[in-house]
């Protein structure tokens, strides 16, 4: 499936949104982000660990649909990270695959990127469903914060010190969390609203 989409002028024109991707992604969610954010004018970059390759074609979890990523999440400098309006960790098995590290004493590259994003308050962090797995090695990022996640991860969230809230989408400052992949449309809408509102405040 082609990753090319046409951007339209919209409230998010000129902004960039990063979405992490790997095999066993939830197709309805990833393809929705690809088009929904573009509909608002935002450029969407799908980032992954490329393992020295120019690109990797992943397969989805539900329908085995292909999706090719050619942007590396490794080597992203602070300026490039701050250029993103949001960094999204999607549902499915993406987070579980991206949290793999060869050295158990070193954070996986995707986890390290998420940790750095949490140090940038201007970057909205979006974590939905099993995406919370990626934050399991950096529990301080969600400790004391209100979050929602898949029911299977409630114990993980509480062990991380997070405050579970029984809502479909929860916003706590620069962190947006969603219940399941099936709630991706509600999750994306809230992210769009928050980015647009933030741009409006900066323009005042």
What does this structure look like?
The chain is of the alpha/beta class. It has a single domain, classed as Class I glutamine amidotransferase (GATase) domain (Rossmann fold, 3-Layer(aba) Sandwich). 29% of the residues lie in helices and 22% in strands. The protein contains six helices and eleven strands. The strands form three sheets. It has a seven-stranded mixed beta sheet with strand order 5-2-1-6-7-11-10, sandwiched between helices. It has a two-stranded antiparallel sheet with strand order 3-4. α1 packs parallel to α6 (184-203). The radius of gyration is 16 Å and the shape is globular. The N and C termini lie far apart (41 Å). The model has no long low-confidence stretch (mean pLDDT 95).
What's the arrangement of secondary structure elements?
Elements: E1 16-20, H1 27-39, E2 43-48, E3 56-59, E4 66-69, E5 71-72, H2 78-82, E6 84-89, H3 94-98, H4 109-118, E7 124-128, E8 146-147, H5 154-159, E9 163-164, E10 169-172, E11 175-178, H6 184-203
Parallel strand pairs: 1-2, 1-6, 2-5, 6-7, 7-11, 8-9
Antiparallel strand pairs: 3-4, 10-11
């Amino acid at each position: 499936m082609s990753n090319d989409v046409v951007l339209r002028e919209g409230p998010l024109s000129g902004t960039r949104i990063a979405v992490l991707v790997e095999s066993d992604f939830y197709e309805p969610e990833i393809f929705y982000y690809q088009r929904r954010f573009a509909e608002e004018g935002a450029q969407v970059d799908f980032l992954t660990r490329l393992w020295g390759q120019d690109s990797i074609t992943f397969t989805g979890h539900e329908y085995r649909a292909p999706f090719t990523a050619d942007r590396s999440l490794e080597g992203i400098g602070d300026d490039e990270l701050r250029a993103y309006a949001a960094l999204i960790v999607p549902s499915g098995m993406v987070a579980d695959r991206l949290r793999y590290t060869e050295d158990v004493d070193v954070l996986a590259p995707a986890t390290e990127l998420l940790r750095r994003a949490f140090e940038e308050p201007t970057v909205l962090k979006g974590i939905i469903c099993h995406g919370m797995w990626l934050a399991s090695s950096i529990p301080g990022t969600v400790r004391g914060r209100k979050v929602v996640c898949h029911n299977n991860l409630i114990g993980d969230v509480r062990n991380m010190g997070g405050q579970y809230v029984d809502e479909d989408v929860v916003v706590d400052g620069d962190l947006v969390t969603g219940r399941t992949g099936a709630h991706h449309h509600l999750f994306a809408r809230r992210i769009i609203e928050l980015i647009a509102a933030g741009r409006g405040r900066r323009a005042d």
